[in-house]
From TrEMBL:
<protein>
    <recommendedName>
        <fullName>Protein kinase domain-containing protein</fullName>
    </recommendedName>
</protein>
<dbReference type="InterPro" id="IPR011009">
    <property type="entry name" value="Kinase-like_dom_sf"/>
</dbReference>
<dbReference type="InterPro" id="IPR000719">
    <property type="entry name" value="Prot_kinase_dom"/>
</dbReference>
<dbReference type="GO" id="GO:0005524">
    <property type="term" value="F:ATP binding"/>
</dbReference>
<dbReference type="Pfam" id="PF07714">
    <property type="entry name" value="PK_Tyr_Ser-Thr"/>
</dbReference>
<feature type="domain" description="Protein kinase">
    <location>
        <begin position="1"/>
        <end position="223"/>
    </location>
</feature>
<dbReference type="InterPro" id="IPR001245">
    <property type="entry name" value="Ser-Thr/Tyr_kinase_cat_dom"/>
</dbReference>
<dbReference type="GO" id="GO:0004672">
    <property type="term" value="F:protein kinase activity"/>
</dbReference>
Amino acid sequence: MFTAPENISEDTSLRGRLISNQRNHSLSDQFRIAQELARSVFYIHAHGFVHKTIRPETILLLSNRSAEFGSAFLVGFDSFGKADGNTVQSGDSLWEANLYRHPKRLGLAPQDRYIMQHDIYSLGVCLLEIGLWNTFVTYEGDSNIAVPSSTLNVETDRVEPVSLKDHLVSPANEVLPRHMGNKYARIVKTCLTCLDKDNTDFGDESEYQDNSEILVAVRSSFN
């Protein structure tokens, strides 16, 4: 059960805030939310765990008098587990969940066991949404069915996993720098391509191992 900190006046998910599309905040607020989210993921990995379900629905923005826009808190630990433990290689076919999963972790029978870099990929998708300040997922009607937003601009039943990843990398390259600057855009692209063989920013896998050889995939929290 999630216990909210004291003096909290309002809470909403990052998804709810993105869907509302309210822009009564500063660019500094977007950077701060991104930084707080990255640090949350870093702390989880530093203690040898993986989250597995990082998406705007599992990110709460809690507001108080000193931070009216809200501070980011990561919740949704129902699939939480040890990074060096055996991971059940099962999944689901929900496109709105698969949107935040690395191509090798999609569908009912993912190819790979879950590792920290899969969290990093999910983080990259969330950082892209924060940077663009547009939701990729909306909900229709009383049935609350998830549908792609005009920003995402895909037909979910026709997009191959690798193509969907490329579809996200494209705005990180072409659109995001105009919104958040080149450094932020480079970080997002690095997250989205963290398991690509030609990703030179992440370096060798051995650089992300602690003394127990647990993969530690976050090396920076926007320092």
